[in-house]
Amino acid sequence: MIRLSELARNERCRVVKLFAQGKMRLRLHSFGVFEGEEIRAVRKSVLGDPTMYQIDTTYVALRYEEAFLIGVERI
Amino acid sequence: MKKKISDTKKNNLPNENAVRIALAGNPNVGKSTIFNALTGMKQHTGNWTGKTVENAQGYFKANGKNYILTDTPGAYSLESYSEEETVTRDFLLFAEPDMSVVVCDASKLSRTLKLFIEITQINKNAILCVNLIDEAQKDGICVDTSKLSELLGVSVIATDARRKKGISELKNALDNSKACSLNIAYSKKTEELIALVSQKLEQCQLPKRYVAIELLKGNAVLVEKLPFGNGILGEVAEILEKENLTFQNICDEVSEKIALVSKQISKMVITRNEKSRKITTEKIDSVLAGKVFSFPCMLLFMCFIFYITVAFANYPSSFLSELFAKAEEFLYSCISKTASPVWLNDLLLKGAFRTLGWVISVMLPPMAIFFPLFTLLEDWGYLPRIAFNLDRCFKKCSSCGKQSLTMCMGFGCNASGVVGARIISTRRERIMAIVTNSFVPCNGKFPTMITLITVFFVGAYAKSFLVALILAAIIICCVILTLLVTKLLSVTLLKGERSSFILELPPYRRPQIGKTLVRSLFDRTLFVLSRAIIVSVPAGIIIWCLSNIYIADVSIITYISEFLDPIGRLLGLDGVILLAFILGLPANEIVLPIALMAYTSSSSLQESTDILATHALLVENGWTYVTAICFIIFSLFHSPCLTTLLTIKKETGSVKWMIVSALLPTLFGVLLCALVNLIL
Description:
The complex is a heterodimer of chains A (75) and B (680). Chain A is 17% helix and 41% strand. With 75 residues, chain A is an alpha+beta fold.
């Protein structure tokens, strides 16, 4: 298992474990981040952070710290 | 609390027979557009998350029935992550609307359906509105609404609210709303717990199962609003402990279950053929949010907007000023035939009317051009990309990336930027965004800057591009200063940890050009302008009186400006300018006109907006290019206008933050002006 923040551009992964707690966890849930869900890293911002991810048909920007809280496996 | 709840109920019931509908949905799915289409009202819409931040109400009639529609702020779920979600949840739970219309995004059904399920846990009477159906079709996503209706047991209407498609079907469906037949069953153990907690809730008038589940989730925010006291959460925690469970376990189970159900349902009703516009959005993003072009594009857009504003504003500007000059002449000749005294004629025409003419001819054209252009960018979906590009800077200042969104709104109007700060979920970061908002110039300050830059540094209207470049450079300085002040606040008054940041990047949507132009002109520009007029007429009268009432052969304005002069000189300004800033507190856009007014009324020069005349007038009154620079700096950084200040007080609920947001920019303005004055 790696962290979502380690994903390189255009790589796909499957969520294995959510480390986020409390409100952040609920927030991720509401964006469809659940165990077993697929995520693709679309691009990094010019300044290196945040990163744009694609979850299902939605594009979402996450900062490094938040992406670090999502344990994933490359696919 | 109970009293308050019944109050809300009463307020929502002006007509006993009306059916009360709550309109809910995820952010940016077009709720406001549906609201407008149903009620015919004109709420401002934009392509970014969190546009509607408080409940708006509208009334309409359909099939002989009266309806009251309440537009709730966009919510991803009802789990109270943010203020909007709490507002939405509270409305559904406590105001007890007769039914809810839940708006979904057709291309994000599985995600947006979740809110529908959550809402039907509170009130089963609902209608599902699958909006943006055309957009989804372009993406190759097809939604089988009749099957969806079958699965949920409620009416499902496919709409494209922007093109008014499906609205009449929606109105018809309101007539026979059905109860949602979907039942969410949790694990056996959880169900037992729900039953156990429900027994404690006999007194409770609210939907018991929903409240029981929220208690098991440990929802402290909700418990505060319920009539049981805080002790109940402890009792529930004990029950959970016996089963070796925590609030968090229940939270996860509920949230995952609802997500799973909505995913399963959407899988059953959606047919997809890949490709198309999703790719288009990604392609546009590869330029606008990409490695090479993102910053150049931001600059380019900014310069372009300024260029258009400057280049196209001066024709209507000179036309209007000529018109007003002629009108003044005409009115004067009319009024002088009557018996009214000369001083009154002068007061009304050379005081009030002339100031009004100045404000309208100098301020209206740039504002009427800048604001719609800005709104078009917003409509298109560009603002969240700016937030994406700049987030790192805001993160370094330990603030929320969404602050760049509110900052961008500030360019339109600081007051709406302050209100927009509600999208930021923690109080610390929200106040940071509010206090720093007036560090970017609002729409009303642009005409002043354009005039001064043209008059003192460019010299002719023909070089609009140069003016735009200088403006862009000024804006960059403002953004940098915003960041610095944010950082400063985060280590002094607003210490604390930064919160998490998730920003949705919506697909680009083709802006509705005609509608945007009309709406932003009427809703915003005319509003700001009418305020300026209301303020400028009395200000014109005051200035005229001050400069024409003499005490011992010296006009009052001379006394005042001599009194203020030493302070003004220190800042590279003069007494008259300071007086203009003080009088202009209610509306920034009148500062330069009333300063000019004060000069003309005590000068032999005729009023004119011709740049050579303006230049001559200002130079005659001792202006140099240093004065112009200091004026620009001080007009950028002084107390925000009265409307903004009152909005800040309302939004922060504290006078302290209102004072801080008035003093902080003024402090920077004073320091910068003094510094510039010292160096140059």
